[in-house]
Specification:
Layout (H helix, E strand, L loop, with lengths): L6 H6 L4 H17 L12 H16 L7 H4 L7 H6 L2 H10 L8 H5 L17 H13 L6 E10 L8 E2 L7 E10 L5 E6 L14 H9 L8 E4 L6 H11 L2 E5 L9 H4 L9 E6 L15 E9 L2 E7 L26 E3 L13 H9 L2 H11 L9 H24 L10 H28 L3 H7 L2 H4 L4 H12 L10 E2 L10 E2 L20 H10 L8
Parallel strand pairs: 1-5, 5-6
Antiparallel strand pairs: 1-3, 2-3, 3-4, 6-9, 7-8, 7-10, 8-9, 11-12
Helix pairs in contact: 3-15, 9-10, 13-14, 15-16
Amino acid sequence: MAAARDEASSFMAYFPPEIEDSVIAMTNLEADRRRPAIDGWKPMGRVEFRAYVGLLVLAGVYRSRGEACESLWDAESGRSVFRATMPLKTFRAYSSALRFDDRETRRARRGEGGGGVSDSYDKLAPIRAVWDEWCARLPAMYRPGPEVTVDERLVPFRGRCPFRQYMPSKPARYGIKIWVACDAHSSYAWKMQVYTGKPDKRGPPEKHLATRVVVDLTEGLSPGRNVTCDNFFTSRELADRLCRERGHTVLGTLRSNRPEIPRELRCVKGRAVGSVESVVLGGSAGRGGGGRRGPDTIILSYVAKKNKNVLLLTTAPRYHHHHHRSGPEPRPSRRISNSISSSNRSSGSNRSSAKPPLVLHYNPTKGGVDNLDKVVSTYSCRRKTCRWPVALFHNMVDVAAYNAFVLWREIHPDWMAGKLNKRRLFLERLGKALARPMLEARALARGGGRGGGGRVAARGTTAEADGADADERDARAASNATPRDSSPVKRRRCRVCPRSKDVKTKILCHECRVHVCTHCAVTYCPNCAASSRTAVPQTPPTP
């Protein structure tokens, strides 16, 4: 919290100097090895790295994820902050040379030593050092609330990747799968883990993968949290391990083929819509019989639709008062420690549409990771790339920007009170703050070359920093061509340029009042303009 003094510092807390220097060193090393040299390349430093990331953030703010770089830097339709910060060739050079490791030592770090694939084969070696350092910063900056959500995310990517996954239920379908633990209320990404698949394709699949993932993601989490997950993760084994090793409770949906579900709860034939049946399974003994007894587990079957039930499991003690357990289960098995309790909520009363408390608890806490996916994709900075480490780096920038916004909102709860677009304003200020040092350096360099460095430095604005800025030229020309009633001029397509170019401008012809861009307009001095006006009178074109 102390590191979040402003928008830029709250974001850079996730990219400490170790990460910055590592990325800068590897990028410069890659550029030095290129033969021929990269067109427009300039050695990258911390100022250039932050400016590059700032422009990525601004491109996401302006919803320009799929827009070509030429359009962002265009003098007519682009944004002046991109041209004022760095040339288009430099931005492309940084994107081309961006690296996170030394490719000449990658084989050794992957563990490809003798011809076969060893047990320590690391598929994430091209970005492992940066990824691990970045992930270590996530839990150090925030303490989650009492509700934590564990789920998977899919970073869109369709290029070549040794662990690319196909998930038809996700919008992108193809990409990099990431396990995430986040706060259920704020969707702060507290811990992340990339799924790289099996080390050996010919080897057997990993057993108890779901349990291992949840245990790893909750490591370091203070006891007393409730972990909500879906039916891929939820099991009685996971509930026992989290209670014994972490001191957490579990709430999640169950698949109907789990062995711990009694047969009576699976059956839905003849049950009314809204009916609820539940059972309490006594805690099992620890491994070897010497450990403490596991928690009592409640399994609930709720008929939400006709012939369709929802199965949920929880170890939260708050729901035990609805059940009366007769005694602990003597050994880990499917024996039921008490009789099944049932209730019918569809008896024609006002409670026909009521849901059991377990379902009402699960619904608002299940979507923490899904909400993180939604807010990150809204202003995502990802650009088109064929290299999966770059796609993963773009996702790191997106998640860090959202986490920084959560921190800023926690520290300043009254910031932008009443605004509905707080996150967009935060990201816009963040991108401009990251790009400002390089923008001011270019403004000083240009001002010093024209003998007016002090004037430019005093004002420090983006439009004055770029002497050839086309937006300012348009504004000056539009102000000269605007009629005396000073009515606002809307941007429209140039009447001279071909329609296929779609060139927009605010400049109006002084006589016929049609839109014309700076490339098509003709400049006159006052004397020549007056003489031409008296010699050849102009008539407005017929519509």
